[in-house]
Specification:
single chain, alpha/beta, Zincin-like, 2 domains, four-stranded mixed beta sheet, three-stranded mixed beta sheet, about 20% strand
């Protein structure tokens, strides 16, 4: 079966990346000079994976987003915590064994939670990057937090590591795997056996965390 590319984005990258969006559309990111024929060949070689991924997304029953009501549950580091609405508190959103949201901020709940998650993600992920960098002699340029929905992390050609804020909802073991994954990309740009061997040398249980993301990644959202 011939796979149709919905969008092709060329940039200063070294490898071809296939991205299935939440609506089932198919985006390909490719190097600036990659021949179109080579891209098409690569896509068709991955046809079975693309089809399986699209079918999986279709099987996920659409649900309403968060309503930011009393008792609603929110994830942090793999655990679920209840939300409590309060009349007065210093910050719009506070966490201490659970989330408390100022009632007046409820209409802007998504914006408030997103900002809070971004701040925590920068703190937590930066610390994990620092720890692994010191232990294994990596020298990333900086850490940035994005709002990406289909990519957990990326490594730019300049050495900047990007991570989606949604990752802070996952267990710390999963965060560590993504951190190691992107750090190794500072040395090995592709996903060759050399790359995966380097990841495994630092994080032997990486396959378990990759599986967790495949099975639960869609839950890391508001």
């Amino acid at each position: 079966m011939q796979i149709q590319i919905d969008k092709l984005i060329r940039s200063k990258r070294r490898t071809i990346a296939l991205i299935i969006e939440s609506d089932g559309s198919f985006t390909v990111r490719a190097p600036m000079r990659a021949p179109h024929a080579a891209i098409e060949t690569f896509v068709q070689q991955k046809a079975d994976w693309i089809t399986r991924t699209r079918e999986k997304m279709k099987s996920i029953v659409p649900t309403l987003g968060k309503q930011y009501t009393e008792g609603e549950k929110f994830l942090l580091l793999g655990s679920s915590f209840d939300l409590k609405l309060v009349g007065l508190q210093k910050h719009s959103l506070h966490f201490d064994s659970g989330f408390t949201l100022r009632s007046a901020a409820q209409p802007k709940g998504e914006q408030v939670f997103t900002r809070w998650y971004k701040e925590r993600a920068l703190e937590i992920i930066s610390e994990r990057v620092k720890q692994y960098s010191q232990q294994y002699n990596f020298t990333p340029k900086q850490v940035k937090i994005s709002s990406a929905k289909t990519r957990w992390g990326s490594c730019s050609s300049s050495g900047t590591l990007n991570f989606t804020w949604r990752l802070v909802m996952a267990p710390l073991d999963v965060i560590d795997y993504v951190v190691v994954h992107e750090l190794v990309h500072l040395r090995v740009k592709d996903h060759s056996s050399k790359f995966w061997n380097a990841v495994e040398a630092i994080y032997p249980e990486y396959k378990k965390q990759r599986k967790w993301l495949r099975e639960h990644g869609e839950k890391l959202n508001l």
